[in-house]
Design goal:
307 residues; Spore Coat Polysaccharide Biosynthesis Protein SpsA, Chain A; 2 domains; 9-stranded mixed β-sheet
C-alpha cells in the first residue's frame, strides 16, 4: 500500500532511554488498527546508549509494521520534533514520550475523533502517571504537570484559558505546521536539561488564531515516573526550567502580552498562598509546602533567566 494511505504518524523523540524505548515500541505495535494506516518514527537525538540497536532490532523483527528509526544530530527536543514532521507521511502527527505506553486503541481513537471533528486542529489525550516508586505525599492536582500527567475528566472538551495538552500525548493535523510553522528551537529540552515550553508555545500560536484544540480522554498513554523525577532536586530544576522557558517564549512578545503574563504570575502566587493555608488547615503541610516551593522556583527561573 502506498505511503499516501498512511493517516497517522506517531513520533517518538528519544535521548538515552534504552530502558523504555523497546517497551514503548511494543505497545505501539499492538494497535487494533490496520497497520498500513499508521506509522511510528523514532527520532534519535544523539543517544549514547543502546537505543539505536534496540530500535533497529525491533524494526527488523516487525516487518509487517511501518516503523522507522532516524538520527537527528542537532541536539534539542524541538529539533527532534521538527525532524519528525519532515519525516512523517501521515495527515495526523502524534507525539508521545519515549517512556510513555499507548493503549491498543490509541491510534483508532485519534483518527476517529479527527474524522468526526474536521474543525479541530489539535487534541491532547489523558496521561496517567505510573510511579516506579512510592507516589510523593506532596502531590496535588495542581502539580500533576510536573510528572507530565493530565486528566480533565472522561468527556471531550476544548482546552480553554491557560490549559494546554501535555507533550507526552498530543496530536496535530500536519497542515498546522505548514500554516503556522514548526516548533521553536529556542525552547524545549536539550540533552539532559529541563527547559520546556516547546509544545506550549506551538499550541499558544494556534490559540491566538482561534484554532480549536480539544481534550480527548479516550486517547490514553501511561507515563513512567522513576523515583528521581519526584526528588526535590529534580523538581527544583524542572520548576526553574519552566520559568526560564516562559522568559524565552515571551522574549519577542508584545508589551501587553508580557504584562499579562506577569499579572498572571502574581495571581498564581496569591492562589498558591491560599492553597498553602487550606492544606495546612487540613493537616497536609507537605502538599502546601511543595506548592509554595514550586512557585518560588518558577519565579526564580522567570526572573533570573538570561535568555
Amino acid at each position: 500500500m502506498a505511503a499516501q494511505d498512511i493517516i497517522l504518524s506517531i513520533i517518538i523523540c528519544t535521548y538515552n532511554r534504552e530502558e523504555f524505548i523497546g517497551k514503548t515500541l511494543e505497545h505501539i505495535s499492538r494497535q487494533d488498527l490496520e497497520p498500513t494506516l499508521y506509522e511510528a518514527i523514532v527520532v534519535n537525538n544523539n543517544s549514547r546508549d543502546n537505543t539505536e540497536n534496540i530500535c533497529r532490532d525491533f524494526i527488523s523483527q516487525h516487518p509487517e509494521l511501518r516503523l522507522r528509526h532516524v538520527l537527528e544530530t542537532q541536539q534539542g527536543h524541538s529539533y527532534a520534533r521538527n525532524r519528525g514532521i519532515s519525516e512523517s507521511r501521515g495527515r495526523l502527527i502524534a507525539y508521545i514520550d519515549d517512556d510513555a505506553f499507548v493503549q491498543k486503541d490509541f491510534a483508532t481513537h485519534i483518527i476517529r475523533f479527527f474524522e468526526v471533528h474536521p474543525e479541530v486542529q489539535v487534541i491532547g489525550g489523558k496521561v496517567i502517571p505510573v510511579y516506579q516508586g512510592t507516589p510523593p505525599e506532596w502531590m496535588t492536582p495542581y502539580l500533576l504537570p510536573l510528572v507530565s500527567a493530565l486528566d480533565m475528566g472522561n468527556h471531550p472538551r476544548p482546552f480553554t484559558g491557560r490549559k494546554f495538552p501535555i507533550g507526552a500525548n498530543v496530536t496535530f493535523r500536519k497542515e498546522v505546521f505548514e500554516k503556522y510553522g514548526h516548533f521553536n528551537v529556542k525552547l524545549g529540552r536539550i540533552g539532559t536539561g529541563l527547559m520546556g515550553g516547546d509544545e506550549k508555545e506551538m499550541v499558544a500560536r494556534l490559540k491566538k488564531n482561534g484554532e480549536p484544540i480539544w481534550y480527548v480522554p479516550e486517547v490514553v498513554v501511561e507515563h513512567i515516573i522513576p523515583p528521581k523525577r519526584v526528588e526535590k532536586e529534580y523538581i527544583q530544576s524542572l520548576a526553574r526550567g519552566v520559568g526560564q522557558s516562559e522568559t524565552r517564549r515571551l522574549k519577542g512578545a508584545a508589551f501587553a502580552e508580557k504584562m499579562s503574563r506577569v499579572m498572571e504570575e502574581m495571581v498564581k502566587i496569591g492562589g498558591t498562598f491560599v492553597l498553602f493555608l487550606l492544606y495546612l488547615l487540613r493537616g497536609q503541610s507537605a502538599k502546601g509546602t511543595m506548592l509554595v516551593r514550586f512557585r518560588y522556583w518558577v519565579l526564580q527561573g522567570f526572573l533570573g533567566s538570561k535568555a
